[in-house]
Write a structure and sequence with these properties.
Distance between the termini: 41 Å
Number of helices: 15
Number of domains: 3
Largest sheet: 7 strands, parallel
Oligomer: single chain
CATH superfamily of the largest domain: NAD(P)-binding Rossmann-like Domain
Helix content: 25-40%
CATH class of the largest domain: Alpha Beta
Shape: globular
Number of strands: 17
């Protein structure tokens, strides 16, 4: 799909560039997104109806989604994803929940005492007439009465929807046992033609450190948009959940699990993040396997987003000529990543304990997470540590290594 600028679209639609920019700011052009100072609009987007035209009183031209229990990390991530897709978001949350104003600004919010029939009817009476989607987030276990209220909400809210609409239930595994998506799919298909599906989270959602809310929100969006002819199904996700033992370590991880976790960490990095990494390159382990290539791409993307990434490569001076042709090092040196060289032989002579701490290498994120490589002789790929002492020792080791470092570009030029 191609994109047009507001200026290009003004000729196509016969209205001014200024008017198109105003429509973009009002979220009235589906799929419009801002790239720096320029608005980009999908080339096949339909021109929105003029609100001054009487027909707009009778035809709904907005893509509107209602999120129940919006005031949580899944809801916040959904808002930003839905906005990129051109949706307008409304929300419902409990009255006793403190609203996160910054994350819910410009969102129509209805606060209810309880999700009972009377409260639901009030919301339905005062909310918009038409919706393309309903997302219900229930990560707290609900009782039999609350399940009945949830079912009532779904049935009544479906009256505001059409055959192109979709309902998504986001459940913990206990709430998944109710299987409302199975129970209601036929009725909703017969009465309205809409779809109802569920995503069940097989992970403790309260621990922000161990779960990827953005990944869950992405899965919800996929169910909302792409399962056009499927209803009554449920899928299960662990949300990128990581389980740590009492010492703050994961178990040794297989290759697939290891890369999935580390890439999730990389995708979260922003301009306030600091990633510090050290690798002993005794062997040319920088292969072109898909998992390694994807890992490198996520490194480069994070650096381009403004994350401060520093990488120390440790090898002997005698191997400089060999590493001049290393593709991975060439890529890193041309990126926004600060690449450094440390002479293995010098460290071995002056501070051998640093090599013992680096072992086969690690990636540190800020000062709270360490992603550790295991030797090739091990059947597993690596592990994650949030052990404060372990992370602190690795970070101090990195700072000491920097004292011996030189610009990798200068070494390999």
């Amino acid at each position: 799909m191609g994109y047009l600028t507001a200026k290009q679209l003004s000729d196509k639609w016969g209205i001014t560039e200024r008017r198109i920019i105003k429509l973009c700011k009002e979220n009235r052009i589906n799929g419009a997104r801002k790239d720096g100072m320029i608005w980009l609009i999908p080339e096949n987007t339909i021109k929105p109806l003029d609100k001054r035209n009487k027909i707009s009183k009778y035809i709904n031209v907005q893509k509107r989604i209602m999120i129940v229990n919006i005031n949580n990390e899944i809801g916040y991530n959904l808002i930003s994803l839905l906005k990129k897709e051109g949706y307008i978001t409304d929300g419902i949350c409990n009255n006793d929940v403190k609203i996160h104003k910054e994350k819910l600004e410009d969102i129509n919010i209805w606060k209810v005492e309880k999700y009972n029939k009377n409260e639901i009817d009030k919301v339905l009476e005062n909310s918009d007439k038409y919706y393309e989607g309903l997302i219900i987030i229930d990560t707290e276990t609900i009782n039999k009465e609350e399940i009945q209220h949830k079912e009532y909400l779904i049935k009544e809210f479906s009256k505001k929807m059409n055959c192109e609409s979709s309902i998504i239930l986001v459940n913990n595994m206990e709430n998944a046992k109710t299987k409302l998506e199975h129970k209601l799919s036929k009725k909703l298909a017969d009465d309205v033609g809409l779809r109802i599906n569920a995503i069940n989270i097989n992970a403790p959602v309260k621990n922000e450190r161990t779960i990827n809310y953005y990944e869950i929100a992405e899965d919800v969006l996929e169910l909302l948009k792409k399962f056009k002819n499927t209803s009554g199904i449920s899928i299960t996700t662990d949300g990128g959940h990581i389980e740590f033992d009492e010492n703050g370590r994961t178990q040794k991880l297989e290759v697939g699990k290891f890369y999935k976790i580390i890439n999730n960490y990389l995708k979260k990095l922003n301009k306030d993040s600091y990633m510090w990494c050290a690798s002993i390159m005794l062997e040319d382990e920088w292969t072109e396997e898909p998992a390694e290539m994807n890992f490198r791409i996520n490194n480069l993307d994070a650096a381009n987003r403004g994350a401060n990434i520093e990488r120390i490569f440790i090898f002997s001076k005698s191997r400089i000529k060999e590493f001049k042709e290393n593709k991975t090092l060439k890529i890193y040196m041309q990126s926004n990543i600060n690449t450094m060289f440390v002479d293995y032989d010098e460290i071995k002579q002056k501070e051998p304990k640093l090599l013992e701490l680096v072992k086969d290498g690690w990636d540190g994120i800020d000062k709270d997470t360490l992603i550790v490589d295991l030797p090739e002789s091990d059947e597993k790929r690596g592990f994650i540590s949030i052990n404060k002492d372990e992370v602190k020792k690795a970070y101090e080791c990195f700072i000491n290594l920097k004292k011996y470092s030189k610009d990798l570009k200068e070494i390999l030029k």
